[in-house]
Amino acid sequence: MSAKKILAIINADIHTIAHKEPIKGSILVENGKIAAIGQIEIPEEADTIDAAGASVYPGFIDPHTHLGVSEQGMGWEGRDYNEITDPVTSQLRALDAINPQDDGYREAVEAGITTVMSTPGSANILGGSTVVLKTGGGLLHQRVIRENAGIKAAFGENPKRVYSGQKRMPSTRMGSAAVLREALVNAQNYMNKINRAGDDAEKMPPRDLKNEALIPVLKKEIPLRMHAHRADDIATAIRIAQEFDIDMTLEHASEAHLIVDRVKESGFPAIVGPSMGTPGKIETQNKTLESVKILSEAGITVALTTDHPVLDIYQLLHAAAAVVRETGMDDYQVLRLITINAAKILGVEDRVGSIEVGKDADLVIIEGHPFDYLSTVMYTIIDGEVVYPPEE
């Protein structure tokens, strides 16, 4: 049996996120997991990183990206996020399109971002399943934390634009809502046939991957991950989710602050962004960093996103800093948006998002504050392995 792989980070200010105040001491990592935190005895055989003068944070998380499915600098050759041939493509899987060689992964680890959700695009009403994965540390299948983290859905301008150009439904918001309802009803009917068939193979319907992919949504095992910017689209999405009694996350949510009481009543979390930069289309005219504060103060679980490549993945930290600067939110509250809140929304908070015993050793060691533009990431660690800086 091989010896345990042991790493110790010593003399650090440890920002666990599980607690607001930092802990002064060490972190002991064994076989990729956090084994101990605080004033602890360091085994002689441990590899040691002296973090004196630096701070340790849990690896940062971007919960809505197209990393790997929309490759940087590749043009159409790397655009694998939108299958613009059918408004309902729930059977697609983002994992099948990810290129782990995408340069965005390098930028992510250099910025201390260790976990992302990669998702299909928003051209279709139902775009396919999303995947939560680490940004480094092994072969693609070894990086996956949650292979099916939800089904991407979309309302608003994108599906309207795509399918009105094809002279087919949906070309209106009415059509978008109708297409989603019809897909959910078809999946309900398919699931009911399977249930009635029981163990009788003769009664079992032919396998239908499009409907099969939606069964976990109907069973509340995974959420719909709903791209919706405008308040009316958000309200329609909530109405349909409640109609079918399914779970949902509100992705982008540019105008969620305009109907904050409705969003709060729904209980659905919001992944907000990208809020930096000029509005790119009509439905994002009312986007504002203040939305993050308004939703958070209402008790809604909120996370931030770059929507990479809309913003480069490393700008997640810049977006968080802008929220602090523009809204006056507390640093700790905003750190939660890109750590534990994001992990909870992705359903992986048992593994990542905070520095706690038993969780994955995904850590970033920073000289300075993460929201300071001039701060330096000294080390990024994933599953107990240093992935940045790379080995010589």
Plain-language structure description:
- The chain is α/β, with parallel strands linked by helices and 392 residues long.
- The chain folds into two domains: 1-58 and 354-392, Urease, subunit C, domain 1, CATH 2.30.40.10; 60-352, TIM Barrel (Alpha-Beta Barrel), CATH 3.20.20.140.
- The protein contains twelve helices and 18 strands.
- Strands 1, 2, 3, 4, 5, 16, 17 and 18 form an eight-stranded mixed sheet that branches. A six-stranded mixed sheet has the order 8-11-12-13-14-15. Strands 6-7-9-10 form a four-stranded mixed sheet.
- α4 (173-197) runs parallel beside α7 (231-244) and α10 runs antiparallel to α11.
- The longest helix has 25 residues, at 173-197.
- It is globular.
- 49% of the residues are buried.
- The mean pLDDT is 95.
Characterize this entry briefly:
With 392 residues, the chain is α/β, with parallel strands linked by helices. Helices cover 28% and strands 23% of the residues. The protein has two domains: 1-58 and 354-392, Urease, subunit C, domain 1, CATH 2.30.40.10; 60-352, Metal-dependent hydrolases (TIM Barrel).
Topology of helices and strands:
Blueprint: E1 6-14, E2 23-30, E3 33-38, E4 47-50, E5 55-58, E6 60-65, H1 103-110, E7 113-118, E8 126-129, E9 131-134, H2 140-143, E10 144-146, E11 151-154, H3 157-165, H4 173-197, H5 209-212, H6 215-218, E12 224-228, H7 231-244, E13 248-252, H8 260-266, E14 270-272, H9 290-297, E15 302-304, H10 316-327, H11 331-337, H12 340-346, E16 363-367, E17 376-382, E18 385-388
Parallel strand pairs: 1-4, 1-5, 6-7, 11-12, 12-13, 13-14, 14-15
Antiparallel strand pairs: 1-2, 2-3, 5-16, 7-9, 8-11, 9-10, 16-17, 17-18
Helix pairs in contact: 4-7, 10-11
